[in-house]
Design a protein that fits this description.
Layout lengths: L1 E3 L1 H8 L5 E4 L1 H7 L6 E6 L3 H12 L2 E6 L4 E6 L7 E7 L5 H6 L9 E5 L2 E3 L9 H6 L2 E2 L6 H4 L2 H13 L2 E2 L1 H10 L8 H12 L4 H10 L4 H4 L3 H4 L12 H16 L7 H11 L9 H10 L5 H4 L1 E2 L5 E2 L3
Parallel strand pairs: 3-6, 9-10
Antiparallel strand pairs: 1-8, 2-3, 2-7, 4-5, 5-6, 7-8, 11-12
Helix pairs in contact: 7-9, 10-13, 13-15
């Protein structure tokens, strides 16, 4: 299928160099998901090109990564409302070398933009990413992806929750091998990925998966390990961490249950939970993480009274 629109035409008019639609934009087209965020790779200075394109469309241009020459143009006119286009410079001598430096095969895809048109019958797919998309598998482009950038471990989990895909067996082993490197990532980047996971259904499952199968969650939140040793007592049959995971699961079961709220309450509930709170996070995301960490203080509060009974007050 050939895809075209006004902003691709304008992009083509502004340069005579090769330009490509890449990554998640191509992936989302293949899985038939509406595309609102486009990723464009061009030869030359992408930041300068993005500024020129933004000026021609009377749009905002936002530098995302000056070191890697990545800029975002936010379109807001009536025809292109809520569309964002990220521009980056070609990373390597050609598009094949650029794609080889990407994270997952499903993102190592490109289509050349020619005369404002994109022919999705001519996808450049050197790592058989389309096969992996059709198999619902997230597979690494190379064995060094997590050593090169450890945040990709969390990105893999985020894509699992977003797309309902599984990670490959090879990636499973690579994450377990490199999970300690998650400590090298700035907290802001970790927070960004964690809250994206919280924005999808079954977040409890993916948090549990990171904990039980990837050994990664306790590297991010070391406080959860002591929670596994407290809480089981006369009144509680499981430890504080198991109880917290169960609480998060029940919260999500309520949140996403059809018919849980009567119709006259549904809109008010949805408006309330979708309200943006701190740092762009919704109330819904904060409810989930509050459920998960509501008992995080128990290990430090634990004490034994004169009868030998464990107390957690305070």
């Amino acid at each position: 299928m050939i895809f075209t629109n006004g902003y691709f035409k304008k992009i083509s008019e502004l340069t005579d160099k090769d330009i490509y639609l890449v990554g998640g934009s191509v992936r989302d087209y293949i899985i038939k998901k509406e595309i609102k965020d486009f990723d464009i790779v061009i030869q030359g200075d992408a930041a300068r090109f993005a500024e020129g394109f933004a000026s021609s469309k009377k749009a905002r241009c936002i530098p995302l990564d000056k070191r890697n020459n990545i800029s975002r143009v936010v379109l807001s006119n009536d025809d292109d409302k809520n569309i964002t286009i990220d521009f980056s410079s070609l990373n390597g001598k050609d598009i094949y070398e650029d794609l080889a430096k990407r994270d997952f095969t499903m993102n190592a895809l490109a289509v050349k933009i020619e005369d404002g048109k994109i022919d999705f019958n001519r996808v450049i797919d050197p790592f058989r990413g389309i096969d992996d998309i059709e198999s619902n598998i997230i597979r690494e482009v190379n064995k060094n992806i997590f050593a090169e950038d450890p945040i990709r471990m969390l990105r893999a989990i985020r894509f699992m929750s977003q797309l309902n895909f599984d990670i490959s067996d090879e990636m499973y082993g690579l994450i377990n091998k490199n999970n300690n490197r998650i400590k090298d990532i700035p907290g802001e980047k970790i927070s960004n990925e964690i809250f994206k996971i919280l924005g999808f259904k079954r977040a409890y499952y993916y948090f549990s998966f990171m904990d039980k199968h990837l050994g990664m969650l306790s590297k991010i939140f070391p406080e959860i390990e002591p929670m596994k040793d407290v809480g089981r007592c006369k009144y509680h049959v499981v430890d504080a961490w198991t109880h917290s995971m169960h609480t998060m699961r029940i919260i999500e079961k309520i949140i996403y249950a059809d018919g849980y709220f009567e119709e006259h309450l549904r809109k008010a509930y949805e408006d309330h939970t979708n309200q943006i709170m701190a740092n762009g996070h919704t109330r819904l995301q904060l409810i989930k993480i509050a459920a998960l960490f509501h008992d995080i203080g128990k290990p430090k509060a634990r004490w034994i009274d004169e009868t030998g009974r464990v107390r957690l007050r305070g």
